[in-house]
Amino acid sequence: MKRAEVIAETKFLRLLGRDGWHYVERQRTSGVVAIVPVTHDNKLVLVEQYRVPVDCRVIELPAGLAGDLAGSEDEGLEQAARRELLEETGYRAGRLKRLFHGPVSAGLSNEHLTFFLAKKIKKVDAGGGDATETITVHEVPVAGVARWLRRQEKAGKTVDVKVYAGLYALRTH
Amino acid sequence: MKRAEVIAETKFLRLLGRDGWHYVERQRTSGVVAIVPVTHDNKLVLVEQYRVPVDCRVIELPAGLAGDLAGSEDEGLEQAARRELLEETGYRAGRLKRLFHGPVSAGLSNEHLTFFLAKKIKKVDAGGGDATETITVHEVPVAGVARWLRRQEKAGKTVDVKVYAGLYALRTH
Q1: H/E element holding A161?
Q2: Does domain A5-172 have CATH number 1.10.486.10?
């Protein structure tokens, strides 16, 4: 593979070019994780936060970057999933099941996501994210998630399409 | 909303900054569409192509940009979905059903995707993409898609996670 040319670089992102194609890469991370978290009474735990790029409050699966904290550059994906779930939602995961792994926008970035299923999670903290985040936690009965998502959209929020990949996982596990 | 600062700009992408957040925007497009195409005998039509950003052959839903062709800047999303399906797979869609719409990587880009379900599509051409694309078309029985995807991964390809959002749509429609 020919080496990519760096077109621009910031603290967080690099804009790269290779074979006439331009794309973006995150800096200082070893991977991105998303968690499909389900409580013992069959509620899906989703998060809501304002996202600058889309200028909107977005309903998402708990998710985050692995190895992005100074001193934890060798953090594994499962460890990151566990940390992000706890930070964002206040839920502690038992066993995590790896669901699938792949790019999410293969024409635009080299970002890969790894999805984990976390069943029978336990509330141990308030959640809400780290010092830089303001996250609202939602616990939604699995049977009514699709309806609930429509209501959120009517209220002016938007739904990350990865949520639907999570719902597929719920239907098949 | 404060106006975003342009950090870098190429023919295809802009790297933007706002409120200390950096993200990327596609140039010259009015939206991105993805299609969940199903044949009359219940096969899901998927495409495979080499993607420069991830340096790998990727299994994806047929998808593309609306309004990215000179002279068609006002192309609607449904029209783009119809065109991309035909270009990439050689299948012509009848009625399209809008499934969902949302960001796919709300921390990294302002890209929004709109998903359409296309049932009872009809093969009218070879497909394979436009002059710049080399696309392989796969017709996979819906009942065996999950197993088929695992086999593709074992063969060294990767699966775009949006495929799983498509599979959720298939389960619910």
Answers
A1: none
A2: no
B105 touches chain A (CB under 8 A): yes
**3-class secondary structure, B125:** coil
The architecture CATH gives domain B30-172: Alpha-Beta Complex (3.90)
Answer whether B164 sits within 8 Å of A100, measured CB to CB. Answer: yes
Q: How far is CA B55 from CA A1, A55, A151, A160, B34, in A?
A: 8, 31, 39, 25, 21
What's the rounded Cα separation, in Å, for the pair B106 and B159?
Answer: 20
CA-to-CA distance for A171 and B166, rounded, in angstroms?
13
Substitution target from A5, A7, A52 for chain B, most B beta carbons within 10 A: A52
Residues of B in contact with A26 (CB under 8 A): 108
Distance CA B159, CA A112 (A): 10
Domain ranges of chain B: 30-172
3-state class of A82 per DSSP? helix
For an interface test with B, which of A145, A161, A167 has the most B Cβ atoms less than 10 Å from its Cβ?
Answer: A161
Q: What is the ipTM of this complex?
A: 0.94
CB-CB under 8 Å, B165 with A1: no
pLDDT tens by residue, A52-93: 999 999 999 999 999 877 777 788 999 999 999 999 999 999
- pTM to 2 decimals? 0.95
Which tens digits make up the pLDDT trace of B55-93?
999 999 999 999 877 777 788 999 999 999 999 999 999
- What is the DSSP secondary structure assignment for residue A149, as one 8-state letter? H
Measure B26 CA to nearest chain A CA, in Å.
8
| Distance from C-alpha of B105 to C-alpha of B121, rounded to nearest angstrom | 30
Helix or strand run (H / E) with residue A165: helix A162-172
Residues 70-99 of B with CB under 8 A from A: none
